[in-house]
User: Which sequence fits this backbone?
């Protein structure tokens, strides 16, 4: 019974969410590649042995494969699913056929085809957020302090009950969520909080403390806190509604917040302000999918939007094998006037594959350690 609950509560939501995001990502590659005249021989959601599939009239094999941890579009002339060109095969093609391979297409067509996958993920996230904001609106609260935690950064800086936060490091803010978002990714980083008190603006320097909190599901999360709380009376909790165009703009803003927050988190890892054990792998994603599923459809859809942005950013990393690595190769080609040799590309791809696999193993180990701990 426990196994059945685990499968239906965690594994199935995880597979459904990830498969949707992979499908959209690969569809971006496929559609732009097709628009650029590049043929595809396979479109797979998942890796490994094929479970089910069909071949369309253009010769593309559409399939669902056994390992639901990604997917790929294999283009005409590719040696593998990472779009490493089959140099030997391409060298024996006619010029007409070469023009329909990824390797033989014009540089801008290759770049557009590769970039289309991550871009599709960003567009999906914006669309999801826009629909959610249109249907459900957005609960917001004014950035007014109802309580200052003892021994917190805010208490040490002199923040008082009733203060309204109006700016963070000079940037104007409107909601309490703006404060949370800004502070959470800046642990141990000096910031200046501007508060309005008795009609005057006061600048209060402080350093958010790195803190570990436990969410409603028992997960431990590390972030920056300054130690202020609002309530319904002072925060004026309300649901803000949006027209379709306003919802799209809000979706773009929300997606941008995730992107900037992710880069800030990476910077914190490099500087040691946050620990690397916050990195999540497939196990944590599966756990989060199940937890969100227990909160309802809207929560699962919102998680899908966040993960879609994460997948887009991950694929843009300048690592060979990933889309970002291909774009780096194309940038080098544009500068040099000719592509890197096949030998150099193959070595780079092998190094990139080792990096990606190592990161996945590390993230999975962290997931398991956190679950056991």
Assistant:
């Amino acid at each position: 019974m426990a196994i059945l609950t685990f499968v239906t509560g965690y594994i199935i939501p995880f597979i459904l969410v990830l498969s949707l995001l992979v499908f959209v990502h690969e569809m971006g590659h496929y559609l732009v590649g097709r628009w650029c005249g590049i043929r595809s021989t396979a479109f797979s959601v998942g890796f490994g042995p094929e479970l089910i599939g069909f071949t369309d009239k253009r010769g593309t094999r559409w399939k669902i494969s056994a390992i639901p941890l990604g997917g790929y579009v294999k283009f005409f002339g590719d040696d593998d699913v990472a779009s490493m060109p089959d140099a030997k095969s391409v060298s024996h093609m006619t010029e007409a056929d070469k023009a329909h391979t990824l390797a033989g297409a014009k540089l801008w067509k290759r770049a557009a085809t590769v970039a289309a996958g991550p871009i599709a993920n960003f567009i999906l996230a914006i669309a999801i957020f826009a629909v959610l904001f249109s249907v459900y609106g957005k609960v917001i609260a004014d950035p007014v302090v109802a309580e200052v935690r003892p021994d917190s950064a805010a208490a040490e800086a002199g923040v008082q009950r009733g203060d309204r936060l109006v700016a963070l490091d000079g940037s104007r803010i409107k909601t309490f969520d703006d404060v949370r978002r800004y502070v959470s990714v800046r642990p141990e980083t000096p910031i200046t909080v501007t508060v309005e008190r008795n009609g005057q603006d006061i600048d209060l320097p402080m350093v958010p403390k790195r803190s570990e909190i436990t969410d409603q599901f028992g997960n431990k999360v590390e972030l920056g806190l300054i130690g202020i709380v609002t309530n319904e009376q002072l925060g004026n909790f309300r649901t803000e509604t949006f027209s379709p165009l306003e919802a799209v703009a809000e979706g773009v803003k929300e997606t941008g917040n995730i992107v900037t927050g992710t880069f800030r988190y990476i910077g914190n890892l490099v500087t040691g302000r946050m620990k690397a054990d916050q990195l999540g792998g497939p196990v944590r994603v599966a756990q989060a999918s199940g937890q969100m599923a227990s909160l309802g459809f809207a929560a699962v859809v919102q998680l899908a939007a966040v993960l879609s942005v994460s997948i887009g950013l991950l694929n843009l990393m300048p690592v060979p094998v990933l889309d970002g690595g291909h774009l780096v190769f194309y940038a080098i080609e544009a500068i040099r006037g000719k592509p890197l040799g096949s030998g150099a590309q193959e070595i780079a791809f092998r190094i990139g594959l080792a990096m990606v696999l190592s990161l996945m193993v590390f993230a999975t180990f962290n997931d398991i350690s956190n679950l056991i701990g």
Q: What stands out?
A: The longest helix spans residues 2-35. The longest strand covers residues 40-55.
